[in-house]
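Sharing in case it's useful to others searching the archive later.

Someone asked me privately for the predicted structure of Cystatin domain-containing protein, so I'm posting the question and my answer publicly. Question first, with the sequence:
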Amino acid sequence: MSESKRGEENRKVYEDHDSDDEGISRVDLMKYEAEVEASGGYDVGEYVSNLCGMIHPITVNRWEDLPSYAEMAVDHYNEHNHTNFKVVELLKANIGVVSGFMFYITFKVEESNTGKTETFQARVWSKIRGPNGEDRVEIIQCRIKASCPVEKQQISASPTVELEAKSGGEAAPKTVPKPTTSGA
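And my answer, the predicted structure tokens:
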């Protein structure tokens, strides 16, 4: 679909949008979409809305699986980039509902050999349980947080893990089993 056609459809959505039904104004919806576009979902404010699928900030210490998700993402990153980063601290997280939960996690890491610290971002999909009740988690992305807008990020040297080659030269995300938590 062409950009002009997509723009026309988006304007139609805004024209038809009734803030009484969804609990969010057109202006706030446009602001939200701009934040998602600029940050990839990692830096999004809190918006009151009944719209499904919106990304919302969450309190990191209220989700017991977030530390293990960050560790899984960094392990995946290390494996593909021959580095040795370890998670030091969770900074913030966002969540979206998408056949389970999509977590957008921002955290500090330290390189074990040099002590160098970086801010990382990981997008982790905690899927709906499988047919046998098993938990399923997929690392969608793990990257060093870029200090520039998304458009410039695409051509920067910032490593991004969205790997595992599949036919046709595309990259496929890696699926890993969900870790078990003790005492649960």
